[in-house]
Design goal:
single chain, mainly beta, seven-stranded mixed sheet, four-stranded antiparallel sheet, elongated
Length: 120
């Protein structure tokens, strides 16, 4: 079982920065791919950034060159550094853990979410 707890959200002005953190606990966390998703009211939940267990990162086009995902395996924590924030980045941000185990069984876990609001 894996538990995920997000933190670091808040209110920021356009052009500002925030750093989100996802603290993970449980067994074998370092073997999971970790992702950040976001969901605004009336919208589908969308992938923002993904980092593999090996450290390879991928980003949605809308955040590429502005956001950076990283992981600190010693702390079992994944970060999302968000720079040059825009009003369109306003959403609840969720942490996700995903892996496939024995017989290709998928394990998926979600955090509770943290609110990011970009407004002047």
């Amino acid at each position: 079982q894996v538990q995920l707890v997000e933190s670091g959200g808040g209110l920021v002005q356009p052009g500002g920065s925030l750093r989100l953190a996802c603290a993970a606990s449980g067994s074998g966390v370092t073997s999971y791919a970790m992702g950040w998703y976001r969901q605004a009211p009336g919208n589908q939940r969308e992938l923002v950034a993904l980092i593999s267990s090996g450290g390879t990162a991928n980003y949605a086009d809308s955040v590429k060159d502005r956001f950076t995902i990283s992981r600190d395996n010693a702390k079992n924590t994944v970060y999302l550094q968000m720079n040059s924030l825009k009003s369109g980045d306003t959403a609840v941000y969720y942490c996700n853990a995903n892996r496939r185990g024995l017989f290709n069984i998928q394990y998926v876990y979600w955090g509770q979410g943290t609110q990011v609001t970009v407004s002047s």
